[in-house]
Every structure is written in structure tokens, then in C-alpha cells.
Design a protein that fits this description.
Oligomer: single chain
Radius of gyration: 34 Å
Number of domains: 3
Largest sheet: 5 strands, antiparallel
Number of helices: 17
Length: about 500
């Protein structure tokens, strides 16, 4: 730890006191010395186990998120992995959807919906995401549960950490870290399983045939999980997560937050269970500090809302249990709004303020984006078309004076059935197309198809030199050779001078 040492003393004369000066310690001897530390060491937080309604829901969310994350890569759909981001073939499979890099707009829409959903939930009920579904909170909860099962309760862990190293202490620590590392590596393996088929990846792991990038990301993601959930924990929420810094911009006086009822709880102080707090001149808070002991970020909620609070509601559960034992009503610490605490509102008055302008605006924007997203997915064409001109020859005169332009058509089958296509041209009088008349693509197949578009010399003469507009039409054919769906792409037809 770095520190500087200074001496503070006061020089006076007979008229008036002189201002304070600071001199190094070696300049004077025998004067008062004060140590000033430039850095404060972070103390380890030993979170106490708690049971209650919010804790139960927190574990429900842990199970749901982890079942989805670890279970989804093992699902099969149409003979393949149900959700797979295949970077090698540049195809993204999500159940019935087959997406190409050109469909990146859908990922953007998902991110926008997630952002507005976060804004909406934060405005209504604070940091619900952080406390119940954030990966950092979820994995910290899992790692803390493993720690409690192997090393024991909070008081036992604190006692053991202060003792000298023994064989028993070393074995427990080693067992805990072994389970942590195994769980973290399994998490990294699952993460990579979304980009490499997880069964193929399993065979590669067993045979030690993984590629360098697969090995790197398994180790990297595993190390990140091990470090963040096992060691950094609350430090990630306090110092690394930007959400803690800008959340106040989405809060107002009608946002549901975890609040301590100071009017009811103060003055705090210990008392016997049967003692009437009013007769003793005290509030309902007995200053047991359990709300601090169960907090995963180590804050005291009785000091008011702080940016470190992740909204896990562990303090509500433990305070309610203390109130039950003391025979006083629950809700000394509860979800409430600032207006409700100041004006003494009940639940009905509090919930009436939910539908305020900010919430309605966020909800309206979110609903509009969701509707547009779903509509776009539903009306999305079953194939994609890209038209690229042959850069080697912009336009050329061939046999009998015909003018020819060559194009490359990229066809991408966005379905998982065999499809047949036919390529044609519009807006060019008496034009003919060579190639692209009967194209068959397999499930999710992409192919480049060369075509040549020709116009007669008399038509080219009327058009003059330069570029003429045209439309390339790609039709998806039924079995009866009738068009079922078509996609049109604009391009140009060049007439040489």
C-alpha cells in the first residue's frame, strides 16, 4: 500500500493564529504526526444466507436462466442444433429461422428491444434485472451457494479465514476452487457450443482435437466466470458495470425501490422481544445489522438508496423474518416509492402512479418495435438475392450486334427445404437471359449463379450509350412450375459507346 506521511502543526504569534502548514516528517521532531493513506483496501464481504419470498423468486430465476443457457445447445431441430451461430458457413439457425449476415438488422432490433425493456423495468421497479436475472448476479449466487455448502456458514467462513493454514482448511479451499473451476469451464464449453455444434465440440474435447480459437474462448469465458463470480463479485457491480452509474437517469419519485421506513424504524436500538418499542422510546428497528450481513454488495440500506444496491431484496426477506420474531408488522424494509414513503401512501395509491407519462412512452415505443420486429420476421422472404455486375466488362457487343451484360446472382435459401428458382429481367425491351432458368438450392444453401442479359442491336441503338435501369426478378417456383414468391433487385444495363 502506498502512503504519504505529513506533519500538521500550527504556528501562532501574539496577534492572530497562523494558517495550517504541512511539512515533511524529517523537518521537525517531536510534533504531532498523522498518517494519510491514498488508497483504501477493499474488505471481503461475507454474505449471510437468507430465506424468504424474494429469495425463492431469485432462485427460480437462477434455475430458469441456467436451464435455458445450458439446455438450449442440446436441443435438435430439423436434424441439426436448434440454436447455432455457425460462423464458418455464415448462417445463424434459430429453430425455424435461417439467418444470413444480411439479416443483421434483426440482431439490432433485438438489442433495441432489450434496451427499451430495461428502461421500462427500471422506471417501474428499479434494478429488477440486476437483482434477479443479470448473469453476474446469477453466477455469484451459484458460486456463493457452492461456497456455503463446502466451507460452511458465514460465521464459520469468517472464523476459518482468520485462522492459520491447516490441512483441513487447505482441503476445503481446494475443494471449493475445484468445483468453481469445473463449473466455470463447463460454462465456457456451453458458450462455445453456441458457435460450434456442441456434440461435435464434445468429441473434440474428448479427443483433444479442439482448434486454437475454440480452446481460447472456452478458457477465456471460463476464466471470466471464475474471476467475476468467485472473486470480484460486488466489485463488478460497483465499479465495472455502467448501468449502476446511469440508472438514476431512469429513476423518479414514483419508481419502486427498496426503501427503509425511517419514520417507523428510528430511533433504532436493541430491546427485549416483548417490549413495546413506543414505551421504550425506540423505533421498530432493533439494530441487528442482519440487513447489512445479507447484502451481497455490503451496503446499509438504512442509509437510503445507494447506487451499489442491485435490488436483490435480500434485506427485505431478513428484515421481515426479524419483524415476525419481534412481533411487529412486516415492511420496515420494503419495495416502495419515494412519494409513497414521504406521503404515507398505501399500495393502491402507489400502483396508481405506475401508468405515468414516462412509463407510457417507454411502453408505447417498446410495443411498436416488437410489433414491427414480429411483422418483419413473418413477412420475411424465404430467400435472399444479391446482384453483382461483372466488373471485367461493363458492356460488350457480341454476335449479330447484340449488347450483352454479365451479372452474378447470389441466391440464399432461407428455408430448410429444397427450392427451385428462375431468373428474369424487367424494364428492358426484347431482352433475353442466358443461364438462371432452372436453379435448385438445397436447405439453407447459398450459391453464385452467373447470367448474361442481352438486348437486340436496334433496341440498344434506341437506348443510346450509357446506363439504363433494369430490375432482376428471381422467382421461387412451385412444383407446377408456377411462381410462388419473387424478389426484385434493381441494377443497371450498360450500353458501350
Amino acid at each position: 500500500m502506498l502512503s504519504h506521511r505529513f506533519l500538521f502543526f500550527t504556528m501562532t504569534d501574539s496577534a492572530k493564529p497562523a494558517p495550517k502548514r504541512i511539512i515533511p516528517i524529517h523537518a521537525e521532531i517531536g510534533v504531532r504526526e498523522e498518517m494519510v493513506s491514498l488508497y483504501k483496501k477493499s474488505e471481503k464481504i461475507y454474505a449471510r444466507e437468507v430465506k424468504g419470498w424474494f429469495t425463492t423468486w431469485r432462485w427460480v430465476m437462477v434455475w430458469l436462466t441456467q436451464i435455458v443457457f445450458y439446455g438450449t445447445p442440446w436441443l435438435e431441430w430439423n436434424g441439426r442444433q436448434a440454436v447455432l451461430f455457425d460462423l464458418g458457413t455464415r448462417r445463424f439457425y434459430m429453430f425455424n429461422l435461417v439467418l444470413y449476415p444480411q439479416d443483421f438488422i434483426y440482431l439490432t432490433a433485438l438489442l433495441v428491444m432489450s434496451a427499451y425493456g430495461l428502461f421500462l423495468f427500471t422506471t417501474v421497479a428499479g434494478r429488477l434485472w440486476c437483482g434477479f436475472a443479470c448473469p453476474q448476479s446469477v453466477y455469484t449466487e451459484i458460486f456463493m451457494w457452492i461456497e456455503n455448502k463446502i466451507e460452511g456458514s458465514r460465521s464459520k467462513r469468517m472464523k476459518v479465514d482468520k485462522e492459520a493454514w491447516t490441512l483441513a482448511k487447505l482441503s476445503r479451499k481446494a475443494a471449493k476452487h475445484a468445483v468453481w473451476i469445473a463449473f466455470a469451464l463447463w460454462t465456457g464449453y456451453t458458450f462455445v457450443g453456441y458457435f460450434t455444434p456442441i456434440r461435435v465440440l464434445g468429441d473434440e474435447v474428448i479427443s483433444l482435437g479442439m482448434g486454437p480459437w475454440e480452446m481460447f474462448w472456452i478458457l477465456f469465458y471460463g476464466f471470466a466466470t471464475y474471476g467475476n463470480a468467485g472473486f470480484m463479485r460486488e466489485q463488478v457491480c460497483k465499479y465495472m458495470c455502467p448501468y449502476a452509474r446511469f440508472q438514476s437517469a431512469m429513476f423518479d419519485k414514483d419508481t419502486l425501490i427498496i426503501s427503509y421506513d425511517a419514520k417507523r424504524g428510528e430511533p433504532r436500538g436493541s430491546r427485549a422481544r416483548q417490549t413495546d418499542p413506543k414505551a421504550a422510546g425506540k423505533g421498530d428497528c432493533i439494530d441487528c445489522t442482519l440487513c447489512v450481513q445479507v447484502c451481497p454488495t455490503g451496503i446499509d440500506i438504512r442509509k437510503g438508496l445507494q447506487y451499489e444496491c442491485i435490488g436483490c431484496a435480500a434485506c427485505i426477506d431478513v428484515c421481515d423474518s426479524v419483524m415476525d420474531k419481534m412481533g411487529t408488522p412486516r415492511g420496515l424494509i420494503r419495495y416502495a416509492t419515494q412519494n409513497a414513503m414521504e406521503n404515507g401512501w398505501g399500495r393502491q395509491q402507489m400502483w396508481q402512479r405506475v401508468t405515468r407519462p414516462r412509463v407510457l412512452i417507454y411502453s408505447g415505443i417498446l410495443v411498436a418495435i416488437v410489433v414491427a420486429f414480429v411483422s418483419s420476421l413473418y413477412s420475411r422472404p424465404p430467400f435472399r438475392v444479391d446482384v453483382v455486375r461483372d466488373r471485367g466488362a461493363l458492356g460488350r457487343v457480341v454476335d449479330d450486334g447484340f449488347v450483352e451484360n454479365v451479372y452474378r446472382i447470389q441466391l440464399m435459401n432461407a428455408s430448410e427445404q429444397v427450392q427451385h428458382y428462375r431468373v428474369g429481367v424487367e424494364q428492358l425491351t426484347q431482352s433475353s437471359v442466358e443461364g438462371g432458368q432452372d436453379i435448385e438450392l438445397g436447405p439453407a444453401e447459398a450459391r453464385w449463379v452467373p447470367i448474361a442479359v442481352r438486348v437486340p442491336p436496334e433496341v440498344a441503338a434506341r437506348m443510346g450509350s450509357g446506363a439504363a435501369g433494369m430490375t432482376v426478378v428471381v422467382e421461387q417456383l412451385r412444383k407446377s412450375d408456377q411462381p410462388q414468391y419473387d424478389v426484385r433487385e434493381r441494377s443497371t444495363f450498360m450500353i458501350p459507346r
